[in-house]
Amino acid sequence: MIESSRAWNESLLNGRPYVLVTYGEPYFRSLAAALEKSAGKPLLVVEDIAPNPDIALLEEQVSRFASLPATPVIVALGGGSVIDSAKVFAAARGDFAAMDAFLKKRAGAETLSPWPLIAVPTTAGTGSEVTSWGTVWDNAAGSKYSLAHPGLYPEVALVD
Predict the structure, then answer these.
(1) How far are the Cα atoms of 67, 75, 117, 143, 154 from residue 158, in angstroms, in the given order?
(2) Measured between alpha carbons, how far is 82 from 87 in angstroms, rounded to an integer?
(3) Would you put residue 78 in left (φ > 0), alpha (ψ -120 to 50) or beta?
(4) Within a 13 Å sphere around the CA of 43, how many CA atoms are in the beta-carbon half?
(5) How many degrees, rounded to 5, is the angle at CA 130 between CA 57 and CA 64?
(6) Which of 78, 3, 1 is nearest to 33 (CA)?
(7) Residue 38 region, left (φ>0) first, then alpha (ψ -120 to 50), else beta?
(8) Residue 6: its pLDDT value, please?
(9) What is the reported pLDDT for 59?
(10) According to the model, what pLDDT value does residue 12 have?
(11) What is the pLDDT of residue 38?
């Protein structure tokens, strides 16, 4: 399905710019290359995804979105950690502080308007591709948070 340009260009992305969130391993780089061939170059690729996404790394990653020239669709290609990270990126929209306040204090839900998300899971088990939930760890504080917002349901879950 990654290689079908018609599916990506006509029904999934509809010409919208996208950001790819995936792992930096050779297998995922080959899938990313196939996606780029069929859908065009992404605005940004985030491939330094950690297992059990930690808030410190997520904050640094979100800063990469601040200067994007257009509003993207987030394409999450990978397992639960990729999809959870992508949900953080979609919710933060380049502004980690607002998402962090929502995550920790449940404040400001009305100000969150997540970017659209397409999930392409490569593992089974978490179900993150069909929920509005994402899990975030704060290893320094010994805490775990659940990010939940109705806008975080992926608009498409592509399961092959």
Answers:
(1) 28, 10, 11, 31, 10
(2) 9
(3) left
(4) 17
(5) 25
(6) 3
(7) alpha
(8) 52
(9) 95
(10) 86
(11) 85
Q: Which residues of the chain have pLDDT under 50?
A: 5
Q: SS3 string of the chain?
A: CCCCHHHHHHHHCCCCCEEEEEECCHHHHHHHHHHHHHHCCCCEEECECCCCCEHHHHHHHHHCCCCCCCCCEEEEEECHHHHHHHHHHHHHCCCHHHHHHHHHHCCCHHHCCCCCEEEEECCCCCCHHHCCEEEEEECCCCEEEEEECHHHCCCEECCC
**Reading across the β-sheet that carries 18-22, which strands appear in turn?**
44-46, 18-22, 73-78, 117-121, 156-157
pLDDT for position 104: 80
